[in-house]
Design brief:
By secondary structure, the chain is an alpha+beta fold. The chain is built from eight helices and 17 strands. An eight-stranded mixed β-sheet has the order 4-3-5-6-7-8-9-10, with helices on both faces. A five-stranded mixed β-sheet has the order 12-11-13-17-15, with helices on both faces. The structure holds 6-O-phosphono-beta-D-fructofuranose and manganese (II) ion.
């Protein structure tokens, strides 16, 4: 057995010691998040052995089917993190409104925003899912935060991360000084540093997008994907590979490990929804991780972390990953807006095309 390696608990204590103003509350909060993640990992690992049949499918605030494990994971995070005195409020994908800390517990200065089980439509088919979280500070003096206190741009995140329930269970975090990945060692039950200082290569030849939405995309995204699909004989002069897991957390992890591009862009499928992913507990934490690893995260028009939220469950277009590809797509958006791309004509998306625009 290898002992003496850096556990997550040791890492977060040492990381705080290096800070100008060490914060024991943040260390304690991350420790509680770690506990929540271990409970969720155990619940997920039991799969169909434990999932009780549901009489009636529940629906969450977004009108999406709520799996029993969505509800369990949400409850695990609330119970694991409400008691410690580091938080004054939480908000979750699964709850319509912010969750107030019960009156019997002390309050702290932080807000925890989370997606308890991202990609949960993959649970039935035993594909990787995860938990995404973001830590913000409540405005000075606030102990009973209102909705407005949560609506802070991603640049204000103090810490962000995700857990991955895959072949191995992982916890990947940033506290604003790089991105560090920990693998759960099942022999000792501790997250152990296995991926220090993760970096996204600037160049990539791999992209991820749900192409069944192609006809609803905006022209700059159609242009980008069309050029990738044309491969070596197209304008990019290189063959591209495509992946789509339909679990954002797993796609971002792949990008942190080997580079790549992930997109859930703006589309016209439902004009009320300018994107699929949620800003505060999906896009923002991932954007902070990606930037900390040297990548870029954008809406196509704006840096994701600069978007000022208007609503807790606001959706946003997401384009993130290797720097050079994200910058290229941002350029395609600018060229589209200025009309400079009118030369661009895609046989794939034109009238006689495979993915004909609606
Ligand atoms: O939480 C939203 C989510 O499940 C992401 O994890 C994933 O990237 C996306 O939705 C999958 O969308 P689609 O069902 O369109 O493939
Ligand atoms: Mn999600």
């Amino acid at each position: 057995m290898l002992y003496g390696r850096t556990t997550f608990s040791k890492f977060i204590i040492e990381e705080q010691r290096r800070m100008a103003q060490p914060d024991a509350q943040l260390t304690a909060l991350l420790n509680d998040v770690q506990t929540a993640v271990k409970y969720i990992a155990s619940a997920v690992a039991h799969g169909a052995l434990r999932s009780a049949p549901v009489a009636e499918a529940a629906v969450n605030v977004h009108g999406e089917e709520q799996k029993p494990l969505d509800v369990i994971a949400n409850d695990i995070v609330l119970r694991s993190c409400e008691w410690g005195g580091q938080l004054c409020g939480m908000a979750s994908e699964e709850l319509p409104d912010p969750y107030p800390i019960p009156p019997q517990y002390p309050r702290g200065r932080y807000l925890l925003v989370f997606d308890p089980l991202d990609g949960s439509s993959n649970l039935d088919v035993d594909v990787t899912v995860g938990t995404i979280f973001s830590v913000l500070a409540a405005p000075e003096g606030v102990t009973e935060p209102t909705l407005t206190d949560f609506l802070q741009p991603g640049t204000r995140q103090i810490c962000a991360g995700y857990a991955l329930y895959g072949p191995a269970v992982m916890l990947v975090v940033t506290m604003g000084r790089g991105v560090h990945g920990f693998t759960l060692d099942p022999e000792i039950g501790a997250f152990t540093l296995t991926h220090p200082d993760m970096k996204i290569p600037a160049e990539t030849r791999e992209f991820a997008i749900n192409t069944s939405n192609a006809r609803f995309w905006e022209p700059p995204v159609q242009r980008y994907v069309d050029e990738c699909v044309k491969g070596g004989s197209g304008p990019r002069g290189a063959d591209f590979n495509m992946r789509w897991i339909a679990s954002m957390v797993a796609e971002v992890h792949r990008i942190l490990v080997r580079g790549g591009l992930f997109m859930y862009p703006k589309d016209t499928k439902d004009p009320a929804k300018p994107g699929r992913l949620r800003l505060m507990y999906e896009a923002n934490p991932m954007a902070m991780l990606v930037e900390q690893a040297g990548g870029c995260a954008s809406t196509g028009r704006l840096r994701l972390l600069d978007v000022v939220p208007q609503d807790l469950h606001q959706r946003v277009p997401v384009i993130l990953g290797s720097k050079s590809e994200v910058e290229r797509i941002e350029r395609y958006h600018r060229e589209y807006e200025s009309g400079a791309d009118r030369e661009f004509a895609s046989p794939l998306f034109n009238v006689r095309s495979l993915f004909r625009a609606a």
